[in-house]
Amino acid sequence: MVTKKGTSSKSLDALSPLDGIVLEQEKLAAYRDNECELHVYSAVCTHLGCIVTWNGLEKSFDCPCHGSRFAGPTGKVINGPANDPIQSEDQE
After folding, report:
1. CATH number assigned to the domain comprising residue 32
2. pLDDT per residue over 10-38, tens digit each?
3. Which residues form the domain of 28?
4. Cα–Cα distance, 58 to 52 (Å, whole number)
5. Residue 65, CA atoms < 13 Å, CB-side half-sphere
């Protein structure tokens, strides 16, 4: 499993395929793809620094402050005003 040191691995271990979670205290966002690979990102929106939330219906990380949306599997911007993807925290 790919995790960042200090991450709540118990929460990440329980993550089902095609599901995501935001660990607010650690400021991490995680998504498990359909091949069970875990993708970990910074939960800090690249627009103005708010913490994103998980949108299970759309499979995206959404910023509650200004409406930016980021794709769960890639962290890429779906909708702005953010221009940059959320930062990957994946470690090999």
Report:
1. 2.102.10.10
2. 678 889 999 999 998 899 999 999 999 99
3. 9-79
4. 14
5. 11
